Amino acid sequence: MDVTLSELLASFMESPLVLWVRMLGPLGSEERVAMFMELVDGVFLHKVMTHIDPSPTNQRLNKNVNNDVSLRLYNLTVLTRTCDPVPLFASRP
């Protein structure tokens, strides 16, 4: 089974989670590659997360990633840290 990159991208962009995220607000473009890049730079996903949990974070996001891998990685690291589970009950000594 030989799947092209274009087919993988199309499949990913039509997956239920991506469709749900896209319903939360317009991305800058309707072109698949541009939408994908907008998702992976972390800025739009961070907006989604702050709507779900508006508590402030200590780290700022880089809004202008411009396809810079290190800035994208930084943004996604900040995003994943906001998703870390918080214990419901603090352990007592």
Task: Summarize the model shown.
This protein has about 90 residues and is an all-alpha fold. It has one domain.
Number of helices: 5
Low-confidence stretches: none
Label the overall shape.
globular
What is the mean pLDDT? 81
Q: Tell me the β content.
A: under 5%
**Overall SS class:** mainly alpha
Separation, N- and C-terminal Cα atoms: 56 Å
Order of helices and strands: HHHHH
Largest sheet: none
Give the % helix: 40-55%
Please indicate the count of domains. 1
What's the alpha carbon Rg, rounded to whole Å?
16 Å
Tally of DSSP β-strands:
0
What does it look like?
- The chain is mostly helical and 93 residues long.
- It has one domain.
- The chain is 55% helix and 0% strand.
- The chain contains 5 helices and no strands.
- It has helices spanning 5-13, 16-23, 32-40, 43-52, 69-83.
- α4 runs parallel beside α5 (69-83).
- The longest helix has 15 residues, at 69-83.
- It is globular, with a radius of gyration of 16 Å.
- The N and C termini lie far apart (56 Å).
- This is HOOK N-terminal domain-containing protein.
- One of its GO terms (cellular component) is centrosome.
- It comes from Poecilia latipinna.
- One of its GO terms (molecular function) is microtubule binding.
- One of its GO terms (biological process) is cytoplasmic microtubule organization.
Using brief descriptors, characterize the structure shown.
mainly alpha; 93 residues
List the helices and strands and how they pair.
Blueprint: H1 5-13, H2 16-23, H3 32-40, H4 43-52, H5 69-83
Helix pairs in contact: 4-5
